[in-house]
Amino acid sequence: MIIGLDVDDVLLSLMDRWLHEYNEAYDDNLQKHDINAWDTWKFTKPECGKRIYNLLRPEMYDSIEPEPSAAAFVQNIRDRGHTPRYVTACGDPKKLQLHRRFATAKWNALIRHGIAEYGELLLPGKDKSRAPVDMLIDDRAHNCTGFRNGMAVLFTQPWNEWLQDEGKYAHIERADTFTEALALIDYYDD
Ligand SMILES: [Mg+2]
Fold first, then answer.
1. Three-class SS string for 22-90?
2. How many A from CA of 7 to the centre of ligand 1?
3. Using one digit for the tens of pLDDT, what is the confidence trace for 72-109?
4. Distance from the alpha carbon of residue 140 to the mean position of ligand 1, in angstroms
5. pLDDT tens digits for 28-75?
6. Residue 150, exposed/middle/buried by CB under 10 A (0-12, 13-18, 19+)?
7. How far is the CA of 23 from the centre of ligand 1 (A)?
8. What is the DSSP annotation of 125-161?
């Protein structure tokens, strides 16, 4: 199978890096577990609001940390004979220069942390509904509900726990850990 892996907050800890920069800039103490919806801006101080999206820059990937055991998780996927493919939004696709810089920064971070290997593919794209993968593992509920090519695995993060009835979607499973995600890969491997 081709396993589509979302990058931000599945393999790399974007939210931790992002909130660190927000807390510094706005003298706040927002933590990852506070963010219980996708719209991060709603949890910021009024003087910040949607300005928090201005903090998302390619340079932040120079100092981003991996999710714990992300490299081992991807190696386990390879060891099972599957192909990892990195499927990730890279900002506004119409802003081509910035889009490329995000894609490059993410790829470099994946290589630096031993997660991706040279020769593997990173697919930049906001709309993941028709991503050319057999299974999509993503932390954004919207990406999982909209996925049309196979099984979607919703990787648990505080901002997707509101989706408690994921069982009503025949094509969505939830994984709280990489171990659970691997078990689902094994289950749907046919
Ligand atoms: Mg993500």
1. HHHHHCCCCCHHHCCCCCHHHHCCCCCHHHHHHHCCHHHHHCCCECCCHHHHHHHHHHCCCEEEEEECC
2. 6
3. 999 999 999 999 999 999 988 899 999 999 999 999 99
4. 6
5. 999 999 999 999 999 999 999 999 999 999 999 999 999 999 999 999
6. middle
7. 21
8. -S--TT-S-SEEEES-HHHHHH--SSEEEEE--GGGT
Structure tokens at 99: 């889009």
> In what order do the strands lie in the sheet containing 2-5?
121-124, 83-88, 2-5, 135-138, 151-155, 172-175
Report residue 75 as tokens: 């190696």
Note the pLDDT tens digit of each residue in 114-152: 999 999 999 999 899 999 999 999 999 999 999 999 999
Q: Which residue reads 């709603």 in tokens?
A: 42
Which domains can be identified in the chain, with CATH numbers?
A: 2-13+65-189 (3.40.50.1000), 17-58 (no CATH)
Report yes or no: 155 and 181 within 8 Å, Cβ to Cβ: yes
Who surrounds ion ligand 1 at CB < 5 A?
6, 8-9, 139
Structure tokens at 81: 């004979």
Report residue 118 as tokens.
């040279």
Find the farthest-apart pair of alpha carbons in the chain and give their distance in angstroms, rounded.
52
d(CA 105, CA 89): 12
